[in-house]
Amino acid sequence: MALSSVLTASGASASGGVRVGCSVTALQTAITNANTAGSGTIELASNCVYSVLSPSTVTEAFPPITGHVAVIGRKGTVLRRSLAASSAFRILAVNAGGVLHLSHLTVENGSTTGPGGGIRVLAMGQLVGKQLVIADNQAANGGGLDVDAMGVATLRSSHLNANESNAVGGGAVISFGTLVLRHTVVESNSGPINGGGINTQPSGRTTLVRSNVRYNRSGGPGGGIANLGTLKVVDSSITRNTGTNGGGIASGSATSVTLRGSRVVHNSPNNCYAPTGTIRRCHH
Known about the structure:
The chain has helices at about 5-10, 25-35, and strands at about 10, 20, 40-45, 50, 70, 80, 90-95, 100-110, 120, 125-135, 140, 145, 150-155, 160, 165, 175, 180, 185, 190, 200, 205-210, 210-215, 215-220, 225, 230-235, 235-240, 250, 255-260, 265, 270-275. The protein has about 280 residues and is mainly beta. The strands form 4 sheets. The chain has an 18-stranded mixed beta sheet that branches. Strands 7-9-12-16-20-24-27-30 form an 8-stranded parallel beta sheet, with no helix packed on it.
């Protein structure tokens, strides 16, 4: 795209951020500029699919986040890997020291042989998401989202749907760090082993508050959630998930799971599994 096209695609917004028109190149440039400045707010166009054919890096559609950057969508805003793309790449990554505020948009069709097909949060990076849809992404682990050790991801009022892992687990999310889901739905994701919906690794701490984990499928234990770290589920539902054992929750330790005001029901072949002990307040 010519330089003049980039300049006309972007402009100052009323809130002091940068308004980006329906141009992939303009958005890539805006993220680079925000990283360079150390911070920035980027407002995207409504009813626009930012469909990336040529990624910014070998592994990411857009420049990795290194500053404090807010990307705000509107109705119908989508960030996606183009269906015509010949190479595999995820949509977004948050590097060490980076903070990404992401809201009111869809992240879809990312693909990688590594972790996090939609978004990857590296160690010491942070993702804060609100009203996101993370859908139809695939990766070796964490089809929709990967949170590395010492990384943090907090999602509110979001939907992780139809993502897929193809190596280990976490069809929607694999987390080695801190993961918090509030008022969020994890639905119809799949993985071949350990956690069709969510996979929490030994260093990970996962908290669900008023969220739903449903209709996820695992080829191993933990159709909804596989937990090797620490899991806390508050006022939430884990229902109609399928795995080889612990259709709702499979955990390496019964005592590392806390259920408070939550329902784990109608999962197959059973609701909860731990190799020793019983997960308290889980209906077997």
